[in-house]
Structures are given as C-alpha cells and as structure tokens.
C-alpha cells in the first residue's frame, strides 16, 4: 500500500498486489534485458512508487542494489561520484533530478566519460525533451540508452515505454510517453467514455494486469476511479481513470498533455492543489484561498498560494507559511504567497485562475525586517541567492526556503558557493543555517578551519529546539566532529 495525496486533504492508500510488481518486470524484460551484472541505485523514498521499480528491479534479477544516502541524493556532485565508484548500470530518475546531474556531469567531462550506465529510465513527472540537449550534445545516441516511462501508483509504477533519441529533439516539443507495456491497454476517451480521434485530447484510461485493487477504505472513490471497462466483452475487467490529459499521435505514440484537474507534479511529487487549499483554509484569518502551479520563473515550476483574508489586519506571509509547515511536507509548501482583496472571476462566477497576478519578485510580500549584507561574504551570498531564486534582493536574515527555495535549488546554491569561495561546504549546511548570515559564518569557519565559541553555543541552542530526529542526529554528529 502506497499513499498518494487527496483533494480533500485526506491521503488515499493505493492497494497494489504483489503479482502486479512481478508481471511488470516480466512484461518489460524484452526491452531492458536486466541481469545479475546490473547495478541499480535505490535513490527514491519508499513512499514514492518509483522505489518499487528500483528495489525489485535489482533483486528479481540478482543484480546489486546501492542504497543512496539522503544527503548524497540531494547533492548531484556526490551522486555523480557514487555512480562512478559503484559502476551503476541502471539509473532511474525524475527529469528534475536528472537535469541537476547533467549540469554537474558537464562540469566533470573526464570523469563522466567512464560512467558505466547502460540505461537511464525517466518517470515521476513529464519529461521536457529540451533538458536533454546538453546530454545528447555530449554523447549522441551512444549508450546509455534513454527511456521515458509514464505511470501512476494506481497502475503499478509504469504504464508506457518510449526510447528517446536525438531525433526527438527536432520532431516534438511535448512529452511523448510512447506505447503501453504489453499487458496493458491505454485508451484516450471523452467524457462519454468513447475513444477520441487521432490528435484530439482526452482523458487517459488504463486497463490490464497492473491495475490496483482500489483505495483502502474508500469504496466510493474506488468506484469513481476504477470503473468497468466499457470497451471489453470480458466480465469483470476494469479501467483506471487517470485524470491525465493526452492525445494519440499518427505514429501510434501517446503524448502526455498534463492534468485534467488541479493535480500537479512538483519535483517528482504528485501534489493535489486542493489539499493545500484545504489546509490553508483552516487558518482563522483566511477566508478564501487558491493554490496554483506556475512555471514563469527561471527555476521552474513552483507553487503559489493566493489568499483573501477574513478582515484586517491581514496575516503575514511568515505566519501563513509557518501554519502550513506544521501540517504539510516541505515539497507541498508554496514558494510564494500573494494577499488579495478579492479573486478575479470568470463570467460564470468561478475563480479565473489565469487572471491571478504573478508573485511580486521584488519581495514586497516578505517581512519588513530587511537588513542588507554587511560584509563581502554576505554580499556574494546574497547575490547568489537572488540569482538562483529569481528575486530582486535578499537580506541577511531571509530564510532560503521561505524565499521559495527547495532541495534542488539548494544544490545549485552550494555549487555556486564552492566556486565563489573555494571551500567545501556540505549541502547539510544550508539546511542547518538557511539564512545568509548563518551561512556566511559557516563559510568563514571553513576558510579559517575553526568555529568561534559563540557559534558553537548558537548551534547547540538550535539543536535543542529541533524536533526532527534525523536532523538532531546529523547536527549532533557535526558538533562532535567540531569539538574533536
């Protein structure tokens, strides 16, 4: 059972049978030729269905499975080292994570030539082919072979298969997901469950051996999403209504067009915007809220929350973010909050999502306690953050994650810091000290090789306040090393 988000704020548990996992590999083996010589990475969380493919792909064929530590998975340089030293042959990645790896690989050309990869398999979110241009410029269509796979938890990880080549870069700009796995049927249907003509968008419906049993203790929702197959004469066959928009191309391939509803993928995570809205509406000062995914800044798709307050005084951005942070995982936290007097409406009286304003990149939404950089180190750091985050200015006490930062952007910041200061700063440092002022102290320590007593006391104080057990262990270990 794997939980996925729900639009009402209540996650739903998907019941997947063991035999569905076994048949997934049986049905795809002729494409991939997995064997005992393969080395796989367990890169993804066990709460993400991609990990099912990674874990059992290695074990079912007698291959070797390399469990990737969390901090390595969030540090592209360290992960590239792991791929090289462990001689990994099968790599499974979301496009967002692979984009970071391409950047690092481009900076280490001599080492990257010796990678043992024979397969890179994409999943978890739509693949924008343009991100692969630097990779193809370097390797062409030589190994490793790149494969785009579409799938969802309710249909056991993967549904379709599509090799990606250099020719695709000039042929199409969309996310082509290919053809169904042999024991699946994929239909593109209209609202009346009738097949649509070639090239016409419709909702994808999936039938076949990998369709899950349904949702745990959610019989009504199961009946709504797992429906009798109207195109089959065999009794008991079912289709899963994916909620994904697609169209079938003339060559038989399927092109993924996005979500029909307001469910989106953010950095590989499936997010129901309604779940965030439901949580935000629980705040006593919030009357109405709309959450959208925008893709109009340099660092890619991000969440923006639009809020209409009950009455003055309006809640602060820090207050709203802190309220959500206590209830939702970090990947579901909006990167920006926009306070409005009222929502724009369509002629039908519905919220006009397309008319919602862009977030103010000039940081007008932030707290008034702005303090400019006070020394050269803080000035360089603030410049790096402003460029990576796409904001006009950064103060020394601004929180990286409250400015819209996330783990993938954090790796870019750390990489830029290494270039600027010529010091080795771990990714963990940004999570421990997410302000310019705090990070500047760590950089100064790295340059001088020692920590000031005041800094030691501050870190110990922060350690006592932390609630996350893993972070406590990491910080405790770090303090032991500093003391020794």
Q: Quick recap of the structure?
A:
By secondary structure, the chain is of the alpha+beta class. 35% of the residues lie in helices and 21% in strands. β19 (302-309), α11 and β20 form a beta-alpha-beta unit.
- CATH topology of the largest domain, what is it called? Rossmann fold
Gross geometry:
globular
What's the end-to-end separation, in Å?
45 Å
Tally the beta strands. 20
CATH level-two architecture of the largest domain: 3-Layer(aba) Sandwich
* Number of separate structural domains: 3
What is the CATH level 1 assignment of the largest domain?
Alpha Beta
Low-confidence spans: 362-368
State the major sheet: 10 strands, mixed
Structure description:
With 484 residues, this protein is α+β, with helices and mostly antiparallel strands. It has 3 domains: 2-259, ANL, N-terminal domain (Rossmann fold); 271-355, ANL, C-terminal domain (GMP Synthetase, Chain A, domain 3, 2-Layer Sandwich), CATH 3.30.300.30; 376-483, Non-ribosomal Peptide Synthetase Peptidyl Carrier Protein, Chain A (Orthogonal Bundle), CATH 1.10.1200. It has 17 helices and 20 strands. The chain has helices at residues 18-32, 50-60, 70-73, 76-85, 95-107, 109-112, 133-139, 166-171, 219-225, 273-280, 317-325, 376-389, 407-421, 428-432, 436-448, 453-465, 469-483; strands spanning 2-4, 12-15, 39-42, 64-67, 90-93, 119-122, 145-148, 160-164, 175-180, 184-189, 202-208, 214-215, 226-228, 238-248, 254-259, 263-266, 269-272, 286-294, 302-309, 336-340. The strands form 5 sheets. Strands 5, 6, 7, 8, 9, 10, 11, 13, 14 and 15 form a 10-stranded mixed sheet that branches. Helix 7 (133-139) links the parallel strand 6 and strand 7 (145-148). The longest helix is centred in the N-terminal third of the chain and has 15 residues, at 18-32. It is globular, with a radius of gyration of 24 Å. It starts with a strand and ends with a helix.
């Amino acid at each position: 059972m794997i939980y996925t988000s729900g639009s009402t704020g209540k996650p739903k548990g998907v019941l997947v049978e063991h035999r569905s996992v076994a048949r997934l590999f049986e049905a795809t083996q002729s494409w991939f030729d997995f064997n005992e010589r393969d080395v796989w990475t367990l890169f993804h969380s066990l709460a993400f269905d991609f990990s099912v493919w990674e874990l059992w792909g290695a074990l079912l064929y007698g291959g070797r499975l390399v469990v990737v530590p969390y901090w390595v998975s969030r540090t592209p340089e360290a992960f590239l080292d792991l791929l090289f030293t462990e001689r990994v042959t099968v790599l499974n990645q979301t496009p967002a994570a692979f984009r970071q790896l391409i950047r690092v690989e481009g900076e280490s050309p001599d080492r990257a030539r010796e990678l043992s990869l024979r397969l890179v398999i994409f999943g978890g979110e739509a693949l924008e082919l343009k991100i692969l241009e630097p990779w193809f410029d370097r390797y062409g269509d030589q190994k490793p072979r790149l494969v785009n796979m579409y799938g969802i938890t309710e249909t056991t990880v993967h549904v379709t298969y599509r090799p990606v080549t250099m020719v695709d870069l000039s042929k199409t700009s969309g996310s082509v997901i290919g053809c169904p796995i042999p024991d699946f049927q994929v239909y593109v249907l209209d609202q009346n469950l009738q097949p649509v003509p070639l090239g016409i968008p419709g909702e994808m419906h999936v039938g076949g051996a990998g369709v899950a049993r349904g949702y745990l203790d959610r019989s009504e929702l199961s009946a709504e999403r797992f429906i009798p197959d109207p195109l089959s004469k065999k009794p008991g066959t079912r289709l899963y209504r994916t909620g994904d928009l697609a169209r079938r191309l003339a060559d038989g391939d399927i092109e993924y067009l996005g979500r029909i509803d307001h469910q989106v993928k953010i950095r590989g995570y499936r997010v129901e915007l309604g779940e965030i809205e439901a949580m935000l509406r629980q705040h006593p000062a919030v009357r109405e809220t709309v959450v959208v995914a925008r893709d109009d800044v340099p660092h890619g798709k991000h969440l923006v929350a639009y809020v209409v307050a009950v009455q003055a005084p309006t809640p602060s951005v820090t207050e709203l973010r802190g309220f959500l942070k206590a209830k939702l995982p970090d990947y579901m936290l909006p990167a920006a909050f926009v306070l409005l007097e009222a929502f724009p409406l369509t002629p039908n009286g519905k919220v006009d999502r397309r008319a919602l304003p862009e977030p103010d990149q000039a940081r007008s939404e932030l707290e008034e306690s702005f303090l400019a950089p006070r020394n050269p180190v803080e000035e360089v750091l603030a410049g790096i953050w402003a460029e990576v985050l796409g904001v006009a200015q950064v103060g020394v006490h601004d929180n990286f994650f409250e400015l819209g930062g996330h783990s993938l952007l954090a790796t870019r910041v750390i990489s830029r810091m290494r270039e600027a200061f010529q010091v080795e700063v771990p990714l963990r440092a940004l999570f421990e000290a997410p302000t310019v002022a705090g990070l500047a102290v760590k950089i100064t320590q790295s340059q001088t090789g020692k920590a000031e007593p005041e800094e030691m006391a501050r870190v110990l104080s922060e350690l006592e306040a932390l609630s996350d057990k893993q972070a406590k262990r990491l910080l405790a270990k770090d303090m032991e090393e500093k003391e020794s």
